[in-house]
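Continuing from the previous page of notes. For each protein in this section, the sequence appears first, followed by its structure tokens. Read the first protein now.
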Amino acid sequence: MIRKEFIATLSHAAFASSLFLSQSNAQDKNYTLNFILSSAMYGDMNLADVLKEVTKIGSRDVDLWPKAHANHREQANEMGMDAFKTLIKENQVNLKCMTCYNLGPFNLQKEMEYAQNITGSGVIFVCGARGPKNLSPGNEMKLEIKKFIELLKPQIESATQLGMFIAIENHDHSLIHTKDSMLWFAEMAQQHDCLGIAFAPHHLQTAGLNATDMGNLIRQLDHKVSFFYAQQYGIGSKQVTPKEVELLQMPGRGDLDFTPLIAALKHIQYHGPVSIFMHPTPRGKPILASIAEVTAEINLARTYLLNCLDKVS
């Protein structure tokens, strides 16, 4: 290569590199968290009132929960599809997620059709895995995860046809729980664009992972993170405790530093839902006595998470 061509090549490479860096910097500068309101936080409160709270937490998206964690899916049924669609439209809210632990991963088709009638496409269905629990890393775990995905094929086909998504939570004491099982699941799910993981830090804490470990895991899972629970482990999720103890599950209240997790979400340019979440004990009741108090508690956690984002910006 003669000197003039060599210099031109270097100039082109430098321009391409500077363009990439400027685009990356613009992405970093504009990156934000896309919050979603979990109706489960409001327990059995009136659905029409809950939908009014969505915009108050800086969101347009709602995650509709059924019993036993809430009864808003049942309330939507009682009012009828047309009335629910009107309510969604009046509040300028998107039905972005439907949590379906009650149905499990193999019975989602009818709910997908329901969601399509309400909002079109793009709805995420969160549920747990099915299969042997608490397996040790090894061939048996790999084979069971492969079997689980094979059994999911009818749901995957429906999701693909309807433009929906399935997110499997890394739930405590399930087939998909540990770091290894999540990584193998993500690898085997690569061929299915509609299939990913609902990343739950509170369950990973019980598996022995710290905040740095979880941040690294998010980076490894990359685009297979389809939903993110902003919740940390607290004993109040399992037994009746004073309210101040129960609330330690909320981001910013307990010991878990969410900064490494938020940094990892930013690194992979995660734009999916971020659900500020906790479990009251017993299930099905609001996390606090009034709807205003629940929303204020969510916003307190949202401020904390945005401060974490500021630290890594």
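Done with the first. The second protein uses the same format. Note its length before scrolling.
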Amino acid sequence: MSQLSNVVVTPAPSHVPPELVFDFDAFRPMQVGETYHDAYARWHAKGLPELFWSPYNGGHWVAAGRECLSLIFADYDKFTSRLGVSVDSPISADEDTARPRLAPIEEDPPRQQIFRKLFSSAFVATAVRQREEEVRTLAIELIDGLEPMGSCEFVTEFAQHLPIKIFMRMVDLPDSDRLSLLPLAQAQVAVDVPKQEMLAKLFEYVGKRVGERMQAPGDDLISKIATAEIEGRRITAHEAIGVCSLLLIGGLDTVASMMGHIMQFLAGSPEHRKQLIDNPSLVPGAVEEFLRRFAMTNPARTAAYDLMFRGVDLRKGDKIMLATPFGALDPHEYEDARKVDFMRKSNAKTTFGAGPHVCPGSMLARAEIKVLLEEWLKRIPDFAIDTKDPPRIRTGVNGSVEHLRLVWGH
């Protein structure tokens, strides 16, 4: 995928040294024939510094080193989330009244923690263990239905069913709403789409559900949020809509996208499939290695004030993209970083962020990926990418496999 001809290049501001300006567009990183992560490995091979300036998407810093990423994720005093968590979707300081804030991700501690607590109990270890058998039952049902067909479009026929159906049950929304909600959620992490228009539609949908649950709450996450008390008062509908909308954006896209990258890799690597089939005890380590290797999110922070960070002069208001695919392939952090090694010792990674904003759904994501590996390889051990129907990648804030035709038994 080459860069679009109408992409705007913004001159670097005067405080950015010319040697730190690189012609890298994180929303359109790929060349023809590359996988999403190939593009990041190619740039690392050029000797990128851990923090550099990109002139695309309004101009912003890019954190490319794993350690640098961890520090920025964790330091909310220097790097705020309140001014937007995507370089192409900034928020003004007074936008609280203009639209619901996607809390907790668009908040800093301590307020961020107040909103995070509204749903975090649904994702703790005990809750995930209780849900794992439900995940497994659904996965087996889906795979058993696909196996006799000899092929499938993995994204729409599996990845957008397993984690999304589980999530829709958690928030008690009808599965039939999935198809209308998916494009609204995906728009927030895509590029060259009317994000604000799609976000407004998502808020409208969520607003109706929040209103219903405020009046007649059930035993689901939306009801819990809609009827919560925060800061000694009842949560407002405006706040509840923001929190619930964020849950939908994360729950409807992230794990399904990660599964696409994993299965694209396994389809082309019979030796890795054989490792897992012959030695199922490797699966937990494989989950961690896949999460490390295929990190795919590019969120943002804003410099809260002028500061010197890692030897780089940052100015108040500078946007910093936290490019986790670069962190996943950092050659200074991981030996042979592109290699998928189920025995890799280092589990340090920024796939789910770090610090107070670490993704609360990470344990559920691990469980769902574990079940995918265990149950798919039992039933369909040998599969490949359909050479007549190549994969398609959607780039943007997240890099996702949006189309993956797999074949087997031929």
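What the second structure shows: The chain has 15 helices and 14 strands. The chain has one domain: 18-407. We return to this in next week's lecture.
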